[in-house]
Structure formats: structure tokens, C-alpha cells
Amino acid sequence: MHTHVNPIIDQVAAPTPSDFEQYPETYRRHYWPKVEGYREATKDVFPVIEQVSLLISKHLDMHVTKTLAKDASAYQSLEEMIKTSQMATARSFYYRERTLQDDAKKPSFNFHYDRMNLSCCLKDFYYQRGVEMEQPEGAGLVYNMKDRSHYNLRMDEGDIGFHIGMSYHILSAGIFKAHAHAVYLPNRDGLSRASQAFFFSPSPQTLIMPPRPMQDLASSMPEDEGVVPKHIGLGNWAPNMRYTDWNEAIVRGFKKVFFNE
Ligand SMILES: [Fe+2]
């Protein structure tokens, strides 16, 4: 289960009714979960998340601009995109209780790349039959490392983590690479997880175009072992595609693979 809200404006308005029909994922209704205090807490914490993301993006911009050298004029500043995009969202995810009948090796959410520019996460919550507990060994976000080993993310209260998505991978000409990740929950009877994430996407009209030609985009992704949506994302991308067209195609692909819809 997940809910999806825009903490700044709650709803991104479609320019026309036909845009609303054509791009249901981009302009879908946002929901606040019915959890006491959630809305207030999200609105309180979001400006902090946004400030940190702007600070990071300024440094990413400087590095990319320097690396691109003569091609830098075609680069779209990440800081500017984050400042002007209506597409910042907060999402609360809940991963249901595991049962001993579940396939122990199967991740709760398989390896994938996020499609946004930046994804941000905070410390997870874990529950044993609804009672809060410490993060169990091997539970939570897992990253694919270059040597194919798995890195298990552990965050403390007050930590803010960011990773790069496919949009910024392309928009930075692969100078900053998207990072594959999955969610694991050990097969412990009654174990569940709740997490809070924030996503910074480009505006619907942003052209997803690298500032210099990229040879073989798929292989520029660093870790492809077991990552199905890599092909969903990149297979649907074409040069000069608007974010909203790409977003719709990716979400349809995700739903097919993960939720059989
Ligand atoms: Fe993700």
C-alpha cells in the first residue's frame, strides 16, 4: 500500500481536461493517509528536505557543468528543476506483515531504478505484529553494489538519504548514475515495515534529453543484475521525450511487472 501526496500544493493541476485524461499518473489525485498528525508532520519536515535537496543539487550542478565543459550550455540545472517543479511528492509506504508461507528469497519490492531526479528517504519503521522494533538484519532498502554484493541501508533518526533516479542519470549524461535498489523483509512471521520517501521529479514538460550524446544508454546504468524496470524505463525513453510521456509509459510498465495490472 502506498499513498502519494504533493506536500507543497497537494495537487498538480492538469493544464486541460484532455491532459488529465492523457496523463493520469502525472495528474492523479493525491491522498493524505488517514494517520493522525501525518499531514502536519509532512508539511513541517518537507521544507527541510527541500533545502537539503537544493544544497545537494547545487553541488551536483557544479560537478556536471565542470565535467561537461563545452557541452554545459545544453545542461538543465538540477537546482533550477527542483526549485520550479510542481512534481515533488511525499509517499508513505507500508509493507504488509510477512508470513512463513512467503518465499523467503523474494524481495518485498524487486530491484529497480527510480524514474525521478532525486529520491529521498528517512529512517524506516519496523513492527513485529504491530509493535515497533529495531531494524532487523537484512531488512529495508538494499542497494546493488558494483561487485554485485548487496548493501543494506541503515539510517538513524534525523538522517536524510538521497539517491539518483533515471531522469537525472540521463539529464547529467550519466555523470551521476541511477542506483538500483530493492526492499527486503526477512521471512519473520508478523514482521512489517513502514517508510517515508520524498521524490523530486522534473516538471511534466521537461525534455528528458542528455546534454551530450550518450552511447548505449542501457549499459551506462551501473548494475543491471535482476533489474527489470531498467528496461521499462529506458526501453520507453526516446530523445527529446517530455517527462510526462515517459512517466506514463514507465508507470504502466511498473504496474504490469510488479502488480500484474
Ligand atoms: Fe525505489
β content, as a range? 15-25%
Please tell me the CATH architecture by its name.
Sandwich
- Gyration radius over CA: 18 Å
- Tell me the CATH topology: Jelly Rolls
Estimate nothing, just give the exact number of structural domains: 1
- Name the helicity range: 25-40%
Bound molecules: fe (ii) ion
Q: Average pLDDT, to the nearest integer?
A: 86
Oligomeric organization of the protein chains: single chain
Number of helices: 7
Provide an overview of this structure:
By secondary structure, this protein is α+β, with helices and mostly antiparallel strands. It has a single domain (2-259), classed as Jelly Rolls. It is 30% helix and 22% strand. The chain is built from 7 helices and 13 strands. The protein has helices at residues 17-22, 38-68, 78-84, 166-171, 217-220, 229-235, 243-259; strands spanning 2-5, 88-95, 109-112, 118-121, 125-128, 131-133, 140-144, 150-152, 161-164, 181-184, 191-200, 207-208, 241-242. The strands form 3 sheets. Strands 1, 2, 4, 5, 6, 9 and 11 form a 7-stranded antiparallel beta sheet that branches. A hairpin with a 2-residue loop joins strand 5 (125-128) and strand 6 (131-133). Helix 2 (38-68) packs antiparallel against helix 3 (78-84). The chain starts with a strand and ends with a helix. Bound molecules: fe (ii) ion (FE2). Residues 112, 114, 181 line the site of fe (ii) ion (FE2).
